[in-house]
Amino acid sequence: METVTVKIRPHAETFTAEEDAALRRAGSIIQSGGLVAFPTETVYGLGGDALNRESSRKIYAAKGRPSDNPLIVHICRLEDMEKITCRVPQEAFRVAEAFWPGPLTMILHKSGLVPTETTGGLDTVAVRFPSDKTAGKLIEYSGGYVAAPSANRSGRPSPTLAKYVAQDMDGRIDMIIDGGRVGIGLESTILDLTVSPPQILRPGYVTEEMLSRVLKEIDTDVTILGTDSGQAPRAPGMKYRHYAPKGELTIVEGCSDAVIQYINGQTAAKQEQGERTGVICTSESRPRYSADAVKCVGSRGDEESIARNLFSALREFDDECVTKIYAESFEAAGLGQAIMNRLLKAAGHRVVQV
Ligand code: TXA
Ligand code: MG
Question: pTM for this structure?
Fold first, then answer.
């Protein structure tokens, strides 16, 4: 299959006639059962008609994803939530009012409209109303319900640029909408409202602290940062290895000087063994590293930049054939919880304390 790429100006709020025509074409591809990758404010999604079981099967096949791992249904109007859900608790409306459109996904009981192929066999459905205008228009032109996992091959870092979608999906899907670099860079927060109190299943840009402003009580899935709870994560997708670069990634924890010294010792030794080495660091420590590929993801004072650059740094190591990677560790509070959750998964929970 030939994959066509169309361009929309990054973060466009309104569309030129040409862009609108491209989005209409993309919508008709989805309505006729095809797949289109598109930008959202979090990461690129791989979209198909959420109400068409064949489209969901195609998404699993294109991603190489196990079919017990449910898809998120994207909407573009709040009133559409109630068509695909039932027994919606009051709290869901409060959360929607505070955070939609935006980087938050709610798990709710599903209605009969949504095929179980889309929900990985579950009787609940993940619903997200993205704030990105390109995503919104595409969803509207697609009929209102777009099932979209992140547009990476299963196990790879989620794409934050269209070129990474193309690396994974070229020849496997009908179209890629290139809307430039996404704003947030980590996937949406997932909040399960089918349990009481509501539970965070995946940390993201909308933090527990932000949610606690509209919810009296809130839980967090204990498996989010740990490996030793002995429990399976409640979001099926969180149990799989994820975000992994091709090289072996190790997170190094400790005080800053000790971390830098340890990483420099390791990279020097590995270089001697013929490995290509990489480091994920911050602007504060950047000049002190001597690995082959040193990726600065931002300043420690600016967690949003760290979130935005993390997945592309992991992808760049692959482009540069790096075989051993060391990452500094981050404070696991606020947005840092989402950053550490993704980094720990990318490292397969390989952490060294120094
Ligand atoms: O930001 C995002 O959420 C992006 C963009 C494209 O919207 N999408 C995304 O989708 O990250 P995906 O498929 O890569 O991750 C969805 C996660 C998986 O871990 C899946 O198991 C979980 O959501 N999930 C989906 N439906 C669920 C359900 N009914 N119950 C529990 N977890 C669910
Ligand atoms: Mg994903």
Answer: 0.96
